[in-house]
Amino acid sequence: MKTAIITSESSEKHITGDGHPEQPKRVVSIIDTLKKNKELLWDKPDVVPNDILNMTHSEDYINNLKDSFPKSGLNFLDGDTVVSPGSKDAVFQAAGSAISAIDGIENKKYKNAFCVVRPPGHHAEKNKSMGFCCISNAGVAVNYLIKKYNYKRIACVDFDVHWGNGNYDVMYDNKNSLYISTHQYPFYPGGGSEKDKGKYNNSLNIPLPAGTNSEEYFNAYDRVLDKLIEYKPDYLIFSAGFDAHKNDPLAQFELSSKDFYEITRRTLKATNKFTNGKVVSLLEGGYDLKALAESANYHVNALIETENK
After folding, report:
1. Out of 9, 41, 135, 305, which residue is the most buried by the measure of CB atoms under 10 Å away?
2. Which of 20, 31, 133, 151 is nearest to 87 (CA)?
3. 266: buried, middle or exposed (CB in 10 Å: 19+, 13-18, 0-12)?
4. Helix axes 25-34, 289-308, angle to 10 degrees
């Protein structure tokens, strides 16, 4: 079985305004690169069941979100989270990409999947949007795996350079999930210290200083691998942000494009014996278009190599 790319044209119709870093060209740059690889399968997002949305976020928040999309122009949900008329389909299809990916893996259409969608999700908390994010796509994935397929030990590894406060909030009291994040600290959005452990000691946060280079990052990443081996997940979710790249304009880590291959490879090596290679990866940040496309391509290459073994 092969690796699938889940994407939708709606991701390009989510308009955030001139100069906004979370722009349609992000998905275009990745897709243009990945289309050169003829080994990949391509699929579309599915609909997120309402009960899964309401497990992930409050019902009031989801209802208010559905009413927030303007008929013209732009609407600011917070200082930097912007929606436009085309955003509604993009927001809910980004979450729906997780549903399609999971069903495709469970039905043996493909081995693993990378969801090239926007807006990202890992800053969206139970009751609010923030940081370019409206729905915790990783949270949707976790809750769908639990509700539909009865998974018990789901690990979410978030290597975006920003702490995924939304993922943490959504998974905070979920006994069936483990949330792990490496991120620049102190930094946006605040929080993400080692003291943030979740209600059931089900979160591991690894804060790292600005200027962290590849060697320093991978030394710290060994803690992620050790925790995963101890946890023995039966399913792996990546919140795959590529803004820890040295060329990214929004952060100050010093990783190279090839480092994202190594992050992925090492994580899969540690978990495949528990997950049987079942992995859903969801695009989060990454704002230098060239670095984003290169890094995402390396990430996918590691997914492909793993499923070929």
Report:
1. 135
2. 133
3. middle
4. 40
H helices within 121-253, ranges in order? 137-149, 165-171, 214-231
| Catalytic residue (one of 122, 123, 245, 299) | 123
Contact in structure between 91 and 134 (CB atoms under 8 Å):
yes
Q: What is the CATH number of domain 3-308?
A: 3.40.800.20
Tell me, what's the pLDDT at 306?
Answer: 80
Q: Return the amino acid letter for 225.
A: L
Question: What pTM, to 2 d.p., does this model score?
Answer: 0.98
What is the Cα–Cα distance from 91 to 11, expressed in whole angstroms? 8
Our answer to whether residue 123 is catalytic in this structure is: yes
Closest CA to 131 of 56, 187, 166, 81: 81
pLDDT value of residue 260: 99
Give the integer Cα–Cα distance in Å for 138 and 266. 20
Residue ranges of the chain with pLDDT lower than 70? 307-309
pLDDT at residue 132, rounded to an integer: 98
Give whole-number Cα distances, 277 to 172, 234, 237, 257, in Å.
25, 9, 11, 23
Strands in 235-240's sheet, in edge-to-edge order, are 41-43, 3-6, 112-115, 279-283, 235-240, 154-158, 177-184, 203-208
Say which residues have a Cβ less than 8 Å from residue 50's Cβ, sequence separation at least 6: none
Nearest to 126 by CA among 217, 213, 60, 28: 60
Predicted confidence (pLDDT) per residue in 258-300, tens digit: 999 999 999 999 999 999 999 999 999 999 999 999 999 999 9
Residues in the chain: 309
**176: its two tokens:** 């069936």
